[in-house]
């Protein structure tokens, strides 16, 4: 039994040495925060280690551990969404009173700028417009947009970057 555990530990360690950097980069691409990515990577490694005995080699180790990483990131986002809702409810009245202290001219100018940006976004082709609207106006994550349109996250990011590039010369702010 002890030899078997040592063999399992060694095999797991070999996989991690091979994929450790790629795993971190993947998690970082999802969360865009170095310390959070490091924490999530540690959580993923611990979960994978504890479940490694049940790993069936029907799929590659890489796809298995990346799936664990995706699920951990989803768990984090769900938790974070709940925390945001809590804080938004608590400060909503305070924010609305701050908005009341803004001069009417400033408020109208800000509102006009937002409407102008929205109008310019609607002039973009659909494949560029939809990700921007979902991300900035409906608070969807890159992952959710990717799943909605059944396209890779990298494609969503590219389309958003290209849309911003197309919008930049049209909006003078």
From TrEMBL:
Residues 17-81 form the RNA polymerase sigma-70 region domain. Keywords: Sigma factor, Transcription, Transcription regulation. Transmembrane segments: none annotated. Residues 115-167 form the RNA polymerase sigma factor 70 region 4 type domain. InterPro entries: RNA_pol_sigma-70-like, RNA_pol_sigma-70_dom, RNA_pol_sigma70_r2, RNA_pol_sigma70_r4_t2, RNA_pol_sigma_r2, RNA_pol_sigma_r3/r4-like, WH-like_DNA-bd_sf. Pfam families: Sigma70_r2, Sigma70_r4_2. One of its GO terms (molecular function) is DNA binding. GO terms for biological process: DNA-templated transcription initiation. Belongs to the sigma-70 factor family. ECF subfamily. PANTHER family: RNA POLYMERASE ECF-TYPE SIGMA FACTO, RNA POLYMERASE SIGMA FACTOR. NCBIfam families: sigma70-ECF. This is RNA polymerase sigma factor. It comes from Bacillus aquiflavi.
């Amino acid at each position: 039994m002890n030899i078997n555990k040592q063999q399992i530990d060694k095999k797991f360690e070999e996989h991690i040495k091979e994929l450790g950097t790629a795993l971190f980069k993947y998690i970082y691409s999802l969360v865009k925060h170095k310390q959070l990515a490091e924490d999530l990577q540690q959580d993923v490694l611990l979960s994978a280690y504890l479940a490694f005995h049940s790993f069936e080699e029907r799929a590659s180790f890489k796809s298995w551990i990346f799936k664990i990483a995706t699920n951990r990131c989803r768990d984090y986002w769900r938790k974070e969404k709940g925390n945001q809702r809590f804080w938004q409810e608590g400060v909503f009245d305070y924010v609305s009173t701050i908005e009341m202290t803004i001069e009417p001219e400033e408020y109208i100018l800000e509102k006009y700028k937002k409407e102008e940006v929205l109008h310019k976004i609607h002039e973009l082709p659909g494949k560029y417009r939809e990700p921007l609207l979902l991300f900035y106006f409906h608070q969807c994550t890159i992952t959710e947009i990717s799943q909605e349109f059944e396209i890779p996250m990298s494609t969503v990011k590219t389309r958003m970057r290209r849309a911003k590039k197309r919008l930049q010369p049209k909006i003078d702010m």
